[in-house]
Amino acid sequence: MAAPSIVWFRDDLRLADNPALRAALDRDEPVVGLYLLDEDSPGMRPLGGAAKWWLHHSLTSLGEDLAAKGATLVLRRGAASDVLPAFVADTGAGAVFWNRRYSRPERDIDAGLKASLREDGVTVESFAASLLFEPWTVKTGAGKPFSVYSPFWRACLSLPSPRAPLPEPREVAGFSGRVDSDDLDDWELLPTSPDWAGGLRERWTPGEAAAKRRLKEFIADDLGGYDRSRDEPASGSTSMLSPRLRWGELSPYQVWTAAVDEGNPRRFLSELGWREFAWHTLFHNPDLATVNLRREFDAFPWPRLNPTHLEAWQKGETGVAMVDAGMKELWVSGWMHNRVRMVTASFLIKNLLIDWRRGEEWFWDCLVDADAANNPFSWQWVAGSGADAAPYFRVFNPELQAEKFDPKREYIRTWAPEHVSGDAPEPIVDLKESRKAALEAYEEVKRAPR
């Protein structure tokens, strides 16, 4: 029996523009796909609830797509350093291919496996597929990582243009040997008691085919007006591609190429650049989710946690219209408009004086697009403690934000209608007084040694 090639799928749940899959096909041996749910290796962060829901359905879709091409997706669970070598032995594989990951725990896992498998005579190769510009290739003139977005993105754009996407294979020659696979339902990724995912099912269809449709729709219908209405949460003009990129149902190369072919949508491309910058920052700062990037913020005098305020924020019961609308959209749909993400985060940190890490953890659990870079990076940006951060004295006034970006209250009416009907609760804090308290606390950060 021929020694098959293993394609280890991770955050790249697609067949098109998948360099690891292409390398396996080029080897001209049978191919077996593997997805490994690893929550056991050191440093691996368990997925949040909404992310698990998406993963279940995206894996279902990928398995069906591979089967239609002639191959199988095998599911295994456990520490990758144990499970992957065992799977290589089970199949007698002669090669393993994967697309690179960039968080520190994952990089350590991959480096160890690459070295040990090669020592055993197995061909192992990895590829760039999840970022347009790999983090170590973008440096300042002094050879250091960037800490400010604009020069970072200019440096990216001075590099060779991103490659063209690879086509989807017409067929994938499957492995005929017997290989045991976990049952996806046994992983219990879907909520059952209670089943809170009704809003997710209503809004989303995970999988590569749906991702391609959404990209095509966005380019045709919304890209032209993106600059004008991207900040209006009721406009529906945002791409809604973030979970597709997070799970790799689309690659950034596909999105980049589709947008560029339509013209030169600089503003939209810069959003891809912001995603690149988040991963660049995480690559060079592995503890981004727990440690202030600007260490002087360690001196911020967070008061004792008020659990009532935190719960009101989580449930969308703060009495502040745009905050409540955003938090309810998040809970129901697993997603939130980016402008509203900034408003809700600012309210938690700067009006309620609750540590940004509490908000990051809640979004990690509730967002279908939460990933290891963008989620903590964005929270630190709002907090003022991160890269290219908003200055701490910039406090988003949620009432003014609603007036500017939801003037007809369409978004608020959709997600928090009690604020339109007059049945909303009283605000849990005074916006003016709480902003003043935040600025007073910030004075201690300014006095901290740098």
From TrEMBL:
EC number: 4.1.99.3
GO molecular function: deoxyribodipyrimidine photo-lyase activity
Keyword vocabulary terms for this entry: Chromophore, FAD, Flavoprotein, Lyase
Family matches, as InterPro entries: Crypto/Photolyase_FAD-like_sf, Crypto/Photolyase_N_sf, Cryptochr/Photolyase_FAD-bd, Cryptochrome/DNA_photolyase_1, DNA_photolyase_1_CS_C, DNA_photolyase_N, Rossmann-like_a/b/a_fold
Top-level taxon: Bacteria
Residues covered by the Photolyase/cryptochrome alpha/beta domain: 3-132
Gene3D superfamilies xref list: 1.25.40.80, DNA Cyclobutane Dipyrimidine Photolyase, subunit A, domain 3, HUPs
Enzyme class, UniProt record, top EC level: lyase
Required cofactor(s): FAD
Family named by the database record: Belongs to the DNA photolyase family.
PANTHER family attached to this UniProt entry: CRYPTOCHROME, CRYPTOCHROME CIRCADIAN CLOCK 5 ISOFORM X1
Protein name: Deoxyribodipyrimidine photo-lyase
Organism: Microbacterium invictum
